[in-house]
Each structure stands twice: as C-alpha cells, then as structure tokens.
Automatic annotation (TrEMBL):
UniProt keywords, alphabetically: DNA-binding
Protein name according to UniProt: Addiction module HigA family antidote
Keyword DNA-binding: yes
HTH cro/C1-type domain boundaries: 20-75
Molecular-function annotations in GO: DNA binding
Keyword hit for DNA-binding: yes
PANTHER family (alphabetical): ANTITOXIN HIGA-1
Cited SUPFAM superfamilies: lambda repressor-like DNA-binding domains
Amino acid sequence: MAITAKQNPSRCPPHPGEVIEDMLKDLDFSKIAIAKMLGISRQQLHAILAARKPVSPEMAARLGKLFGNGPSLWLRLQAAHDAWHAEREVDVSAIPSLNVA
C-alpha cells in the first residue's frame, strides 16, 4: 500500500527556490558555481532562491538537467506555489461555476 503525503491546504507549497536552497546545503558548490553551471547570472539565481522570480520552463529544463530529475518536478513545484497564491489573491466571486458533464 502506497502512502502519500497530504499537504495542509492552509500552508503555501514551497517555492522551487526553497527546494533548491535545501539541495545546495548538501552540495559542495558555491552559489556562484551553480549559477555558472546553469548558465545564468548570480543575481538571477539569487532571485529564484529568494522566491522573487518564478522558475520558467526554460529554467526548469536547466535545473532538471543539473540535478538529474528532469524539468517536470520544477514546473510542478512552481505551478503548485502559483495556484495556492492565485486561489487566495484572485477575486472570482463574480464568476459563475458551470456544471459541465
């Protein structure tokens, strides 16, 4: 029987930058070296790590190659983070719900 972790709906899913930051703690590379390996500027990496910049599909491809886990993980992390914020910040009260079979 598979056990799946359930996320607390009131808690924001982590931004991909938080996950990268955790992964970097276990690696023996500086952030400057990681940025160079990704082919991006140090400032761009820091903006992602600080959750000021989202992970784009292009960046997901780079991260997936670097960490060996493919781009899908990074895109799903970003989508979950974005959707959580959108559900709380976008006013949809005037939009009806259609019952589509």
